[in-house]
């Protein structure tokens, strides 16, 4: 085989809207953007399966049912790229279930039975002794559909839908949001697979809402990012998000409003990474400075919301001097 070591997956840049077909040199192809764990699967000549994460770490032990499904469905000598997802009982994508699998340890086999996942495949990098990475996407797609047969929704290994119609992509963007689909991927039909390069585009659904500043990285007089919270029904302030780095003008305006918290602040001195973006256990604890929960800000966020918290960094929009903390939505309420 040409591919014998972990692959750096091809990546995407974020854009604000779905571009027209002519914006791609070879015409655009559109796919739903699934909310899961990126994974490259390699089936060697003897049929053994390697499942690699985006960071080229082995996923085999964490998702044994995916390894078995790939072994049964995909022929030896093949490398494919896709997303491991979990559909909950309500039909929505459940990213929290994936996080549990990632840190489950000895319970992984149990979760494989009780919360089995699917592998949504969107590209093929090698097949039948041919390195397909230099080939255009439209050719790779034809090979992928040939490999997985005519039924694109059979079993635990499925092929992602794809269209060249921008209007259909707009319909997906709106209609599939209720199922937890993050948005739409946009790819050049004539484009090769470029490892580690950001040549695809992604359009994510975003909302604008409010939260209370409960802490900052940096200092209250020179804030770098904000740790945001909302009160729950019992009156406890809960962490909901962390902002991306603040622009200079925002740092200046917030410095005039933020104050060090008194001894009654409910949050610990350090926050686990999963409490303010990113999977639990994936990064060191967040060191920050607690502030009095009296400043309300408006922020923009994507749809990746787990147990009341935004998984990805949110964007600061403005200070809401007209709002009191009591007027902010409660923790767990719709944004």
Plain-language structure description:
This protein has 335 residues and is an alpha+beta fold. It folds into two domains: 11-204, 2-Layer Sandwich (D-amino Acid Aminotransferase, Chain A, domain 1); 206-327, OB fold (Dihydrolipoamide Acetyltransferase, E2P) (Beta Barrel). The chain is 16% helix and 33% strand. The protein has six helices and 20 strands. It has helices spanning 64-73, 95-102, 108-114, 137-148, 166-175, 248-255; strands spanning 11-15, 28-33, 37-43, 49-53, 78-85, 118-127, 130-131, 157-159, 183-188, 198-204, 206-219, 222-231, 237-242, 270-271, 286-287, 289-290, 296-302, 305-306, 309-310, 315-319. The strands form five sheets. Strands 3, 4, 5, 6, 7 and 8 form a six-stranded mixed beta sheet that branches. Strands 11, 12, 13, 16, 17 and 20 form a six-stranded antiparallel beta sheet that branches. Strands 1-10-9-2 form a four-stranded mixed beta sheet. Strand 18 and strand 19 (309-310) form a beta hairpin. The N and C termini lie far apart (49 Å). 37% of the residues are buried. The mean pLDDT is 91. InterPro entries: ATP-dep_DNA_ligase, DNA_ligase_ATP-dep_cent, NA-bd_OB-fold, OBF_LigC-like. It catalyses: ATP + (deoxyribonucleotide)n-3'-hydroxyl + 5'-phospho-(deoxyribonucleotide)m = (deoxyribonucleotide)n+m + AMP + diphosphate. Pfam families: DNA_ligase_A_M. Residues 119-236 form the ATP-dependent DNA ligase family profile domain. Belongs to the ATP-dependent DNA ligase family.
């Amino acid at each position: 085989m040409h591919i014998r070591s972990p692959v750096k997956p091809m990546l995407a840049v974020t854009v604000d809207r779905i571009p027209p077909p002519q914006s791609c040199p070879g015409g655009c192809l559109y796919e739903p953007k699934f909310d899961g764990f990126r994974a490259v699967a390699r089936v060697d000549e003897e049929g053994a399966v390697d499942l690699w994460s985006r960071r080229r770490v082995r996923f085999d032990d964490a998702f044994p049912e995916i390894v078995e499904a790939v072994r049964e469905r995909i022929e030896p000598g093949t490398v494919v790229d896709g997303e491991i997802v979990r559909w909950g009982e309500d039909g929505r994508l459940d990213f929290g279930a994936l996080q549990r699998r990632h840190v489950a340890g000895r319970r992984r086999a149990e979760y494989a039975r009780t919360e089995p996942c699917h592998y949504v495949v969107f590209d093929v990098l090698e097949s039948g002794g041919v390195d397909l990475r230099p080939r255009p996407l439209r050719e790779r797609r034809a090979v992928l559909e040939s490999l997985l047969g005519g039924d694109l929704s059979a079993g635990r290994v499925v092929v992602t839908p794809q269209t060249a119609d921008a209007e259909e992509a707009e319909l997906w963007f709106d209609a599939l949001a209720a199922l937890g689909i993050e948005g739409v991927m946009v790819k050049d039909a004539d484009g090769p697979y470029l490892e580690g390069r950001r040549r695809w585009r992604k359009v994510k659904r975003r909302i604008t809402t409010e939260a209370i500043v409960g802490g900052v990285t940096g200092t209250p007089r020179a804030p770098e990012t904000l740790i945001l919270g909302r009160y729950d029904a019992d009156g406890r302030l809960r962490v909901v998000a962390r902002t991306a780095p603040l622009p200079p003008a925002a740092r200046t305006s917030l410095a005039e409003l933020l104050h060090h918290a008194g001894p009654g602040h409910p949050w610990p001195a350090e926050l686990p990474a999963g409490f303010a973006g990113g999977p639990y256990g994936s990064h060191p604890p967040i060191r920050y400075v607690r502030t009095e929960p009296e400043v309300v800000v408006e922020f923009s966020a994507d749809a990746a919301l787990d147990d009341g918290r935004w998984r990805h960094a949110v964007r600061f929009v403005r200070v809401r001097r007209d709002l009191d903390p009591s007027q902010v939505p409660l923790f767990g309420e719709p944004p």
